[in-house]
What does this fold into?
Amino acid sequence: MSAVTDASGPVDQKESSASPEVTILFVGLCLVLGIGSRQLLRGTRVPYTVALLLLGIGLGALEYGTHGGLGKFGASIRVWANINPNLILFVFLPALLFESSFAMEIHQIKRCLVQMVLLAGPGVVISTFFLGTAIHFLFPYDWNWKISLLLGGLLSATDPVAVVGLLKELGASKKLNTIIEGESLMNDGTAIVVYKLFFQMVQGDTFNVAQVIKFLSQVALGAVALGLAFGLASSFWLGIIFNDTVIEITLTLSVSYLAYFTAEDGAGVSGVLTVMTLGMFYAVVARTAFKGESQKSLHHFWEIVAYIANTLIFILSGVIIAESILHSQRTITGQSWGFLILLYVLLQVSRVIVVALLYPGLRYFGYGLDLKEATILIWSGLRGAVALSLSLILNRSSDIPPLTKEIGALFVFFTGGVVFLTLIVNGSTTQFLLHLLGMDKTTDIKMRIVDYTRYEMNNKALEAFRELGEDEELGPADWPSVVKYITCLTTEEGHRMHPHAISINENEQRRMHMQDTRLRLLNERSCFLSLSPFLARALDSISYLQVFKLLIGECLTKDG
It folds into this structure.
């Protein structure tokens, strides 16, 4: 963000007079609110992230309404509400991006990569120009094309922080989860690059088509190269660390932040794409470098980091939205609220157009995409802290012509409103939509595995029951009474049918067995990876393991 990092805005006098230590009060309060919300919402259909956003809006409105009457607590809220938006990106994004990309499965990344690129490349461009054109012609602010396209590019970023948090909560299918999560990660990087391009144009820089292509290629491909470089260097270091979980986990944390900072502040490339590449490199190559318990500890560590970051960033987003809107009442009129609703509708229309135009490719490549999944893909285009931070960065630069304070305030208002509406409307109704489309049901494959597991457990119980009957000391027991009270020991044949012993044709049975095999291999893959270093030591060669892992991936991804 070197193009806009140096801009600084006005600092609240109350915030500047607050003692630095009050900042920790807001962090502690947010975590307590997060813990309480998570506990209270368990078993309900209210998404955790939506509740956090509402809490943040409530805190921001409370601080504004009391006019500084909350003491140190209010001072702490003001400090965070006036935080440099670049700092939001630099503090929260690296950890969240790395955790999401590192957790993705390699064989699913391989199969869904083309779909992700379609949505994050052409999809962002289509959305940017559609929204920019609609804003230019429908909104009454006399913005030129560059400013209209700037807002369109800013709003084209589906936020990985919002999307990943929601999908993990709702338990969407792994395939759909991978496509949406991967698209959000790439989309975010692409949208920030497009935002930078139009921001430079607004400031007076000129680009021809060749220069635009060169700029986008350098920023995107440079980010991939930088992410791979950090991945190679850190994985080599991991290879010479022996049995020190603390160092291994600390290295992953430090390299994610260093990679993001180097990309944004040093190399001038996309930090989002850099960290995403780094995380995927670890998922593909470096996962086996974590020995024994290190892998389990690493998973728990990043899960906690992601939870804390999500909790803070959504409450903070709510606070910023409330404070920004309430402090811009002179600029924000009743007409502005009407155009906010129109912008939200246009955002959904742009998502429909993107998915519809790219649907042939989305359906052909990877695992394919049916209409139900396309519907969820459209509805899950949430906006979050990234778009909000970009609008705040622009607001701090709004004293640079042709930007004005009014344009900056409207950008923050529209972006904050869209973030609120997508999280509240789309986020809270996605689970209902999944249920309406019948996509929240347990698949037939999983049900067959559950039935077979129950069948085998019942057989083992019956075998153990018969052995107890033959025991010398337990033989005289009243076994008919035992059977009466332990219903799983019933001997009725209909309850213990093998799940594969059903009347289907041979082709269908072969397909069913292949699907079951794929799912079981997928479920066992993580276990195999955690054991692989020990197997490698026993075999004195890692090559056998690499071949075996490749075979597993091919079995999981081949058709038929």
Observations:
- The first helix runs from residue 13 to 17.
- Residues 120 and 187 are 4 Å apart (CA to CA).
- The mean pLDDT is 77.
- The chain has 22 helices and no strands.
